[in-house]
Amino acid sequence: MTLKNIPILQAAIWQKIAFVLLCFLPFFQLRGRAIADFIISFIAIVFLLHCGFKKHASCLQRGWFPYAMLLWGLIVASSILDGSLQSTLAALAILRYFVFAKALEEWLLASRPQQQFLGATVTLAGLWVLSQCWEQYLFGANIWGYPRWADGALTGPFFAPRAGPALMVIMFPGLMVYPMRMVQERALGKKLLALALMSFLLLSMVIIGQRMPALLVFLGFFICAVLVRTTRLAVALSILAGVVGLALLPVLSPPAYNKLVLHFVEQMGSFAHSSYGQLYIRALNMLHAHPLLGLGFDGFRRHCAEPAYFYGVPQFAPFMLGQDPAAGCNIHPHNIYLEIATLSGLSGLFVFVCLVLYWLRTVLRAALTTTALMPSMLFITLCMLFWPLASTSSLFTERTAGWVFLMLGWGLALARTTTCSTGTGTGTGTGTGTGTGTGTGTGTGTL
After folding, report:
1. Comparing C-alpha atoms, which of 231, 268, 26 is closest to residue 128?
2. How does 124-150 read in b/e, with b if 16+ C-beta sit within 10 Å?
3. Distance (Å) of CA 445 to CA 234, 239, 359, 421, 423
4. Does the global pTM surpass 0.85?
5. Is the per-residue pLDDT at 319 higher than 50?
6. DSSP character for 7?
7. How many CB atoms lie within 10 A of CB 23?
8. Please, are residues 174 and 277 in contact by the beta-carbon 8 Å criterion?
9. What is the pLDDT of residue 231?
10. Lower CB count within 10 Å: N or C terminus of the chain?
């Protein structure tokens, strides 16, 4: 018996284990971040071993992955130059997220049944978040006994206000895809039910009472109306229902109204002096001082209190006068593009923007070449996740990175299989004498 015949050493066994763990990942993203991080790391390591033993390393040399490695190298180099061993080790560990996304694209989600099974688990995770939000709204506490947050936001299955970002990520590929399929049916009853479900999902996001997830979901609905023409009327009517729900918030949920409307208007009225404005100004001052490579992993948190970064960009100096230096400090700058800039400077920011554009273009191309809705749903999700004008959690913390790279890998895998199953080809042949022949062939397929 050779080593390759021993069951535990067979690649198919490890692929099945990795796929089973992947299907549990959405649930552990909600509760159990340490286990979620283990799953991501395990899949990344097993995929690298697969590439090595199967001599499949060529997949790591094509597409977006070499540019991701360039970004990773810039972050590591910046961390080394900053002189922090802890930051250098953390920067090295970022590699697992890029490898994880590549593993989904090339290995774990290579077939339609695998993609559909993952979609079902994401749907279950979304229903869990949704049910817990409404349980907390109707009965005052979730299943764990946690009430609303102090500012009135619904926390769903969490103890803190985290339901909004999680539901935002799950919204389109896990929940919206079903009523959108119903809209495309001819039966009027199904169309009306789909409209009701869409409106309910949007109202749920409004009721949760977290500003940025709600704004991004409204943006997602708008992109959906532009991208999927067959559902425009239903999506437009659901947006109208969401606006009506927003207008009724003083009655439906006064705490959500105070946070979503009153506090938002107050912040926008003097944004530069708000906590978010101070964070962004501090990050830009750091970038001004270190434009090429930034300050390395976690550099924003470690250096934000230093007087050298209180002033920097002259145009921002008036907004800093009379401000508490601690107002611009936090564990991250609350914007992924500013975070990348402070991690790796303008060089890293340029590479990251190119990566995001490549990812979006790849998934959009798949969405436009198939009648299936899931590529469009994942494109909308990636647009929300990478929207530049948004306050966000840190990109490379597991709570955020797990969702981002799961959706990214899923979207790229769908794009890859859609491209493989939808193709055109032509061929012609001619001969002199008594015969000529021509032939054309086209083939299309949808997921």
Report:
1. 26
2. ebbebbbebbbbbbeeeebeeebebbe
3. 26, 32, 22, 5, 8
4. yes
5. yes
6. G
7. 17
8. no
9. 86
10. N
